[in-house]
Specification:
The two termini are 16 Å apart. By secondary structure, the protein is of the alpha/beta class. It has helices at 4-7, 19-30, 65-77, 92-102, 117-123, 126-133, and strands spanning 10-14, 38-45, 83-89, 107-112, 137-142. The chain has a 5-stranded parallel beta sheet with strand order 3-2-1-4-5, sandwiched between helices. Mean pLDDT is 79; it is low at 50-61 and 116-123. The longest helix is centred in the middle third of the chain and has 13 residues, at 65-77.
Length: 147
């Protein structure tokens, strides 16, 4: 039997205002989290003009900072362990990786928009780049597919 707590202590959940964010939240709820875990719930706000280059990864959904904070607090309230909220501005891949390093995350959980073909080429894939560049394990969830 695999014990989750013995492998991952610090988990970074990268959430946005999309259906995959609900999958991230649902997955966190299903993990056997204990008070020894730390979950960092994050949302990246893309600054105006940051996603103008179509070859760069783009945020899945922008929302105002107060709405982002309220959403993360709602997720945070359901966790059985210590947690922190990080609302940052910048390019999603860079910010997710930066937060993972700051908190020395053992696991990053994020959703995938499921882009294919031309849309994926134009908009890039945040989840693919995070998987490629992350300093730790990454769990990518599709909408409606929690653990």
């Amino acid at each position: 039997h695999w014990e989750f707590r013995s492998v991952f202590h610090t988990i970074l959940g990268a959430l946005d205002d999309s259906t995959p964010a609900q999958a991230v939240s649902d997955t966190l709820a299903q993990l056997r989290l204990t008070p020894e875990h730390l979950v960092v719930l994050s949302h990246v706000m893309v600054l105006p003009g940051e996603d103008a280059d179509a070859t760069q990864p783009r945020a899945t959904m922008d929302m105002d900072p107060e709405r982002a904070k309220q959403s993360l607090i709602a997720y945070q309230d359901s966790l059985p362990c210590p947690s922190k909220i990080e609302i940052v501005q910048g390019e999603p891949v860079a910010e997710i990786l930066r937060l993972a390093q700051i908190y020395q995350a053992d696991l990053i959980i994020l959703g995938s928009r499921g882009l294919t073909g031309f849309k994926r080429i134009l908009q890039g894939s945040v989840s693919s780049q995070v998987v490629e560049e992350a300093p730790c394990a990454v769990l990518v969830l599709k909408a409606g597919e929690p653990l």
